[in-house]
Amino acid sequence: MLLHDTALIYGRYLRQSLRSRFALLFGVLMPLLYLLFFGPLLTDLPLGGQASSWQVLVPGLLLQLGLFGASFAGFTIILEKGQGVLERMRVTPVSRLALLLGRVLRDATVFVFQAVLLVLAALVMGLRAPLAGVLIGFAFVALLTVSLAALSYALAMKIDTPHGFGPVVNALTMPSMLLSGLMLPMTLGPAWLDVLSHLMPFRYLVDAVRDAYAGAYATAHMLYGTLVAVAFALLAVTVGTRVFRTAGA
Amino acid sequence: MAIISTAGLARTFQTKRGPVDAVRGIDLTVREGEILGFLGPNGAGKTTTLRMLTTLLAPTGGAATVAGHDLATEPDGVRRACGYVAQSGGVDPQITVREELVTQGRLYRLTRTRAAERAEELADDLGLTELLDRKCAALSGGQRRRLDIAMALTHRPAVLFLDEPTTGLDPGSRADLWRLVRRLRDGHGTTVFLTTHYLDEADALADRLVVVDGGVVVAEGTPSALKLRYGGSTDASLQDTFLAITGRSASPADAAPVAV
């Protein structure tokens, strides 16, 4: 029943995403602007290591895409609460977990699609990276999206208005982006900043994807990145499930 | 036979300004096949009670059974037996009527083919056939309300909960909706539990009324029994009866208009 219901909810919301193709493309705009107007500034800078600046920047932009996009996923739940759609579904026997998972998997699909567009654009700009590494990068984007979207939906269930939701999410995402070294490796900074950034889970993800883009798969970064990404996803889905099971109660 | 019975059903909300007792203890029974009018002033706890009976909100006190299922321990059984139309309705304006009806069937675990057939049946039954391929946003208020009810009838529920179903409808649409409610009860034996602020509606439609105020039941009975008891005669208006029950105004005897 969970699979049936999840597929049903996934289909409903994927069709919703496909209806608004403009929004689908608009989501890639911010990382694309960074790629076009910020990326070229880095090409001759010493970023440490052998990798080209694109192999350092693109993994960061991929996770930025997931971070900013998925964190705001909860907005749609706030709208649906207003329309009564959420309650109408919650009075049916549909699995509560499916109401969360169907949405979250839709988000992961959308963001992987956007990530593919971003990487294609990066190839044009000069990125060269092994295919396996690029695919690993997509897997990390998907996991990050699942985690953040689940938390975003859980938060949105607790907040009734968009203007209560937006500032909270903004206040969380901006420091997360700056402190995880998405734009430039944290190793370039002073020691205190580097240490502080290790408290950010995304730091481990971006380090892992940068290794993958450089073709290094059996590294400590990859191990920690995978562990942190999986643990964060489990934690987020657990929190989300708990909220969806008891919501309104 | 009672299809709904509640004992001391209560709900307290924790707010920043301390606990708020929205529903203090509701005791009521609804008989199978009855149309029950659930009345009360704004804030009396009507919607909160409805949301508890439909499993949307967990009670903080008391117990209830709906269609033979215990609210606390068998929420899935309650969900399969109930249809619910919220005040706001519950359709996505960007989706077509057909897609909403089919999705609803699938949420009630009908197969794809059966859900598509059921959507056609419901549309035929509620006069929505011409509108099946329109977006929900393009429907009029009356059409929207019929769609909301069609969605709630997908699984042929034993009990239909309607929260202020005719608010905002024009007189023609209201009359249609009354006919529909009677037809459901007469044709399918559906028990209908409806809240309303329109006392003419309660008078015309309900077999029995339950009046709540301050989160408890303050009166119940047939419309004429309530009029006799609280309004002084069976010819009293339900409006005066209601005001006398809830104490929101002086008794009918000294209801002299206040100069303005």
UniProtKB/TrEMBL annotation, chain A:
GO terms for molecular function: ABC-type transporter activity. It is a multi-pass membrane protein. One of its GO terms (biological process) is response to antibiotic. Residues 22-247 form the ABC transmembrane type-2 domain. It comes from the Bacteria. Pfam families: ABC2_membrane. The keyword NADP does not apply. The chain crosses the membrane at residues 22-42, 54-79, 100-125, 131-156, 168-193, 213-237. It is found in: Cell membrane; Membrane. Keywords: Antibiotic resistance, Cell membrane, Membrane, Transmembrane, Transmembrane helix, Transport. GO terms for cellular component: ATP-binding cassette (ABC) transporter complex. Belongs to the ABC-2 integral membrane protein family. This is Transport permease protein. The lineage of its organism: Bacteria, Bacillati, Actinomycetota, Actinomycetes, Kitasatosporales.
TrEMBL record, chain B:
GO terms for molecular function: ATP binding; ATP hydrolysis activity. This is ABC transporter ATP-binding protein. It comes from the Bacteria. It holds the Pfam family ABC_tran. The keyword Amino-acid biosynthesis does not apply. It is found in: Cell membrane. Keywords: Antibiotic resistance, ATP-binding, Nucleotide-binding, Transport. Transmembrane segments: none annotated. GO terms for biological process: response to antibiotic. Residues 4-239 form the ABC transporter domain. One of its GO terms (cellular component) is plasma membrane. InterPro entries: AAA+_ATPase, ABC_transporter-like_ATP-bd, ABC_transporter-like_CS, ABC_transporter_ATP-binding, P-loop_NTPase. It is a peripheral membrane protein.
